[in-house]
Design goal:
Blueprint (H helix, E strand, L loop, with lengths): L17 H4 L1 H19 L3 H28 L7 H10 L1
Length: about 90
């Protein structure tokens, strides 16, 4: 399979991977909440199963986002202003 057809060539130029992965749990957690809510309101088992799948993906995405964030913090130059922003971000 030619992976260049997927449009991911720009990932080779990314300075650190944290911004790539941090948005997945931000999207998966509300999706899980919405699907669980629909499953409870409409008494639908399939929506609850989909909510559980979204929740598992959100947890996995959170682990990856935290790990990439910890690896990325050592790659930035460190002065007082950047240190303060990183502490606030954490």
């Amino acid at each position: 399979m030619d992976f260049s057809l997927l449009g991911l060539q720009g990932l080779r130029q990314v300075f650190n991977g944290h911004p790539v992965f941090v948005h997945f749990p931000i999207a998966w957690f509300p999706s899980a909440l919405l699907l669980y809510s629909l499953g409870i309101i409409l008494n639908g088992r399939s929506a609850c199963v989909a909510g559980r799948a979204c929740l598992c993906l959100a947890v996995a995405g959170t682990v990856v986002a935290v790990l990439t964030g910890l690896m990325a913090q050592d790659t930035f130059p460190n002065n007082e202003r950047i240190h303060h922003r990183m502490q606030t971000h954490r």
